What we know:
By secondary structure, the protein is mostly helical. Helices cover 86% and strands 0% of the residues. The protein has eight helices and no strands. The protein is elongated. The termini are far apart.
Amino acid sequence: MSIKATSILRSAALLGVAVAALAMAPAAKAIDQGFAPRPDFPGARQGTDLRAADLNALTDERINIVKAALQLTPDQEKYWPAIVDAIRTSAKNRQARIANAATRVAELHERGPIEALRDRNPVDFLRRRADALAQRSADVKRLADAWQPLYQTLSPDQRERMAFLTIYAVHEMRDAVEQRLSQSEDDDE
């Protein structure tokens, strides 16, 4: 078998492993939804710790998958720590946003529907939403800035694998947004 054929087979095998592992993304959604304890649930704090540990482990696995799929050279390895830091920071900030939203929902639930509607402030809501979007924007920019130096050194094969992983991740995000919109519509009915 030629060197090029071996390289193609190795790349295909790695992509297969990456796709299978990234298929765990629905599991992340399940963890996100299934382990989020209700505030009135006994031992809710313990469940939150378990959930955070699971999400951290999932983030670590995703990082490992991307690194394995890219097959970095020793010269490229020096750029990897900045990417890992950006990914972990983004994941940590996402977990914080989810926790803040859960806290807010619990507070509204404690006050009751009439009081929550009476005290509703749309300006405060818009400000909270803007802050959350600004944080997400900063996380994405930090991630792009971290990837830029490494991306410039990637071979065509590595760029192809990265493009595949990116498309898969965007597809999963789109599906998650569609699912949330669908759930929101169901809740409104």
